[in-house]
Specification:
- By secondary structure, the chain is α/β, with parallel strands linked by helices.
- It has one domain: Inosine-uridine Nucleoside N-ribohydrolase, Chain A.
- It contains eleven helices and twelve strands.
- Strands 3-2-1-4-5-6-12-9 form an eight-stranded mixed β-sheet, with helices on both faces. It has a two-stranded antiparallel ribbon with strand order 7-8. Strands 10-11 form a two-stranded antiparallel ribbon.
- β10 and β11 form a beta hairpin.
- α2 runs parallel beside α10.
- It starts with 13 loop residues before the first helix and ends with a helix.
């Protein structure tokens, strides 16, 4: 079922949608929606964005809900994410007041009565106020906060571009990634509603964003308090680093915004998310942009160089 048939949403012409889906050229305004304490890749992505003020105006960061390992329920996961975002801002000595907001305490249960929360309201306000180009909404978590904002104020659809790490590549045998399956109703809505969407698939694309402890020790550890923190959570993530590497999935959407050539993309018809967490293809649907590859070397080089400059050390 396509929920665009059930909910009164603004219409966007295909030409307008395609124009907004053109890769960014120059500085952009962004907000980041993150389940920051769920894993360790969110922290790297957030730091990379904050290290790039000349290219990315990070207006706000939203704490997203999740259930995994240490979180007892979505609201608990959101609170843990909120605390982790605050920690990153503090370690980088960046004021967080008015820039970090709590998100939903539960997943989307009803399209017609979406829950109110600070993150959605802030996103709506910033989308309405953005003047130079669209507001890029970077999703590196479940789609709950993003879907809620669109449901509360559908008119912002023509003011934003959603850049979301969700699902796997279209050719993959399923779409069963963590961000997409956490809140299935929100995921279906984001792919169905017609909002300009840049999908960053996990398996088959972001899964190339791999690094090792050797690389982290050499280029991240010792680069100020934030570098030491990132190196510490990377080291502590796995008990044995012999012949082991870690995918830092969430760095890829930031990489695309900083340099779209590092994350090649194609225009495709928006796939349908099924209840079985697979893709269904209907070539009459609206168009989205989807990533097909990641130049991990270029993204890590940019991150390592900016972190070194920030800490006042050599790359």
């Amino acid at each position: 079922m396509e929920f665009t048939c059930l909910i009164n949403l603004p219409e966007i012409s295909e030409s307008e949608r395609l124009a907004r889906l053109e890769p960014p050229d120059g500085p952009v305004s962004i907000v980041i929606d993150t389940d920051a304490s769920n894993e360790i890749d969110d922290q790297f992505a957030l730091v990379h964005a904050l290290l790039s003020p000349e290219q990315l105006d990070v207006q706000a960061v939203y704490a997203a809900p999740y259930i995994y390992q240490d979180s007892a329920n979505p609201g608990d996961g959101m609170e843990r994410s909120f605390a982790e975002i605050q920690k990153i801002f503090d370690l980088m000595d960046i004021p967080s007041e008015g820039r970090v907001f709590r998100g939903a305490t539960d997943y989307v249960a009803d399209y017609f009565e979406p829950p109110e929360h600070a993150a959605a309201r802030d996103l709506i306000q910033r989308a309405k106020e953005v003047k130079n180009g669209p507001l890029y909404v970077v999703g590196i978590a479940a789609g709950t906060n993003i879907a809620t904002a669109l449901l509360l104020e559908p008119e912002i659809m023509d003011r934003i571009v959603v850049v979301w790490l969700a699902g796997h590549a279209i050719y993959w045998n399923n779409a069963d990634d963590f961000n997409l399956k956490q809140d299935l109703m929100a995921s279906k809505f984001i792919f169905d509603c017609g909002a300009p969407l840049v999908q960053i698939p996990c398996r088959g694309v972001a899964s190339h964003m791999i690094t090792t402890l050797t690389e982290i020790d050499k280029y991240v550890a010792g680069r100020g308090p934030i570098g030491d923190y990132l190196a510490g959570i990377f080291t502590g993530y796995h008990y044995d680093h012999f012949a082991w590497s870690k995918i830092l999935w969430d760095m890829v959407p930031i990489g695309w915004l900083l340099d779209p050539f590092t994350v090649p993309t194609d225009i495709i018809h928006s796939p349908i998310v099924t209840d079985q967490l697979t893709w269904s293809i209907d070539r009459t649907r609206h168009l989205i942009r989807t990533a097909s590859f990641v130049d991990r070397d270029s993204i890590f080089r940019d991150f390592f160089e900016k972190l070194a400059a920030y800490a006042g050390s050599a790359p």
